[in-house]
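Hi R.,

Quick one: here's the Secretion system C-terminal sorting domain-containing protein sequence you asked about.
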Amino acid sequence: MKKITLLAAAFAFSFGAVAQTVVIDRPADSTQGLISSNGDNDAGVFCAELIELDSDVVLGTIAVEGFSSTGLALEPSMSGLDFFIYEDDGDVPASNPSFAGEALVDLPGIAVGGGGFDFFDDGAGGVPNNFRINVTAANGGTQVTLPAGNYWVVVAPAGAGDSAGDVRWNWLGNLGSPSSVEPYLIDTDDLFGAGATNWTNIAGLIGEAFPALNVTVTDEALGLGDNDLTGVAVYPNPAQDVLNVTLPSNVEVNSATLIDVLGKTTGASLENGQMNIADLAAGVYILNLDTNLGSFSQKVIKQ
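And here's the predicted structure, written out as tokens:
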């Protein structure tokens, strides 16, 4: 019974290539998909797919393929696209979309037509219910950098009607190149009666193998300002407590800011060539200097 309500099959699909440097390439190679949707008239049902990053990545685009249960385009019924990235907590997402603001990348309701995401064709003449999220644009123009590690991606269209009806989107599976941990589904209000009110292994839920959901992640160049200044040194990097900044004698600093991967200012200040970062969480930050001779930016890793 669970298989009938939660699992669906698509008629035709193929994977469309995207530009930039691909760091995760997990194509849709199954005709089966799992619901991941957020209706206006009820709580959402969400799927989560693991991405494993071997090095720091400046997120470019994240593309996923799926299909609507009606066989029609979802766009007329959509008010937006929910997009979250969660930290990994023992091979399970650290939180879920029912808790606002707890995602590492928390972007609910990305507007249709606003540039934060676009629809792309499946290449087989089907209705384009595939989404390509431009992470920088969706995040208000600020790049998002993920340090090396494991993360969970959640994508779900939001809109008019019920999550099981007009905006029901089914995220296509992947059989050939899964991650080390199988995907999860959560249905916090138990809309489908499967008892998946916490993150639940999909294969166990539907009673058959479901190794992964499709996802493609690209990396883009980290824009770090002019960096025309010579003789500027930032050390140690990685750093634990104090970041040292040395400047040529003819350089005067107008302002110095240290921002996190989501573009938020940390509040750390530069005093006498030193910046105290002891109280910051471990991760990747960007140091921006505005000087009398131009701008300078440097990626900094806090251990």
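The radius of gyration is 21 Å.

Cheers,
M.
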